[in-house]
Request: fold
Amino acid sequence: MIGQLELIIILVVVFLIFGAKRLPDIAKSIGKGIREFRKALEGRDAEEDKNGKPPAGGGADGKEG
Reply:
């Protein structure tokens, strides 16, 4: 696990690299990406529940069957 000291060091380095002006934009972009990812997962789960089986298109490798 990452301890408090390591987390603080990582945040300071990120702050120094990107600066104070870009950090809110970066956080907003990350949050938007996470929301879209969750929405896509919920849509897939809803489609599986509705059909009773996984959606067409196969598994993680993209092959059907």
Observations:
- The longest helix spans residues 4-51.
- Residues 20-52 form one domain.
- Residues 34 and 46 are 18 Å apart (CA to CA).
- The chain is about 75% helix and 0% strand.
